[in-house]
Amino acid sequence: MSRVLIISDAWAPQVNGVVRTLRTVAEEMQAMGKIVEVVGPDRFTTIPMPSYPEIRLALFPRRRLARIIEDFAPDALHIATEGPLGMAARAYAKRHKLAFTTAFHTRFAEYLKARTGIPEFLTYAWLRRFHAAGAATMVATQSLRDELAARGFRNVRPWSRGVDLDSFHPEPREDFPYPRPIFAYVGRVAVEKNLRAFLALDLPGSKLIVGDGPQRKALEKDFPATHFLGARHGADLAKAYAGADVFVFPSKTDTFGLVVLEALASGLPVAAYPVTGPKDILAESPTPVGALNEDLRQACLDALAIDRTTCRPFAETYSWRACAERFMDNLVPVKPLPASKAETCWPESLPPESPAQ
Predict the structure, then answer these.
(1) In the chain, where are the structural domains located?
(2) Which of 89, 158, 241, 282 is the least crowded, having the fewest Cβ atoms under 10 Å away?
(3) Homologous superfamily (CATH) for 182-315
(4) pTM for the whole thing?
(5) Model confidence over 221-277: pLDDT tens digits?
(6) Domain 3-161+320-345 has CATH 3.30.465.10
(7) Three-state secondary structure along the chain?
């Protein structure tokens, strides 16, 4: 399968883990000789997402998306998100009896409940139906794989993540002019990130927020002692990570948390709740690189005592090349192959007669 088409409602200029993952995996696949194209909202007329205007949603994309799919003529089709583009791609694939894969990147059920009050079970019922049409659903961690399987999702397959080891290092460090220790968060400043739980903690030193988002103004007003630096990129972002003493990840709804790996690559111990993502990542380390606790304050204090030199070597075990290779292993041909070839192209758990219907 040399021609791979990825459809995603999350794409540049958005800045988030889904975009970073898809962009990096596409680059790795291209370096391996594959022809890869990512179709995002930037190719369509868009409208701002309600309550989150920084995210743009494609408006009535079906006809144009159909032309893009037909012109590209993919060997494999991957639908990364469940937004307007994902739904349009799914409808096209079902109409033309094309097999495709999906991914579960975001906990929409929990996010919608936090923003609108819609019960989680209703959203999960829709998500289950959306992904059931695909040949496989890729997830980043074992705990999420188990959770979705328990919720009735089928053909759930592992697809871990990587970290840019060339960009994030323990040195150089930002010399912040704030009392130490410095407890830092990096990422979107939005309600689903549970930042109030972090900022309300009674901790020594200083709290630092690197990032932007719809909740920033409210949090700046409610927590005036916290230092909000806004979004940073490139070397400035790397120095901010390395200049802190503990990385605090208060989210309870992320499916992985690429920022956790970026922090570790920067020599920064992690404090988090024992939830999907952090508990999967930190459990793989043979030496302590972070602290998990339902009491987030205690996790922060425990992480402060961790030897920073253990963090970078563990982060180095996460490779984007391995992530891209696993992604390719999970892909399926858009059309079933003859029986003589199918055994080498279809995963053992998915026979060629069971692509999406």
Answers:
(1) 3-161+320-345, 182-315
(2) 158
(3) Glycogen Phosphorylase B; (3.40.50.2000)
(4) 0.82
(5) 999 999 999 999 999 999 999 999 999 999 998 989 999 999 999 999 999 999 999
(6) no
(7) CCEEEEECCCCCCCCCHHHHHHHHHHHHHHHCCCEEEEECHHHCCEEEECCEEEEEEECCCHHHHHHHHHHHCCCEEEECCCCHHHHHHHHHHHHCCCCCEEECCCCHHHHHHHHHCCCHHHHHHHHHHHHHCCCEEEECCHHHHHHHHHCCCCCEEECCCCCCCCCCCCCCCCCCCCCCCEEEEECCCCHHHCHHHHHCCCCCCEEEEECCCCCHHHHHHHCCCCEEEECCCHHHHHHHHHHCCEEEECCCCCCCCHHHHHHHHCCCCEEECCCCCHHHHHHCCCCCCEEECCCHHHHHHHHHCCCHHHHHHHHCCCCHHHHHHHHHHHCCCCCCCCHHHHHHHCCCCCCCCCCCC
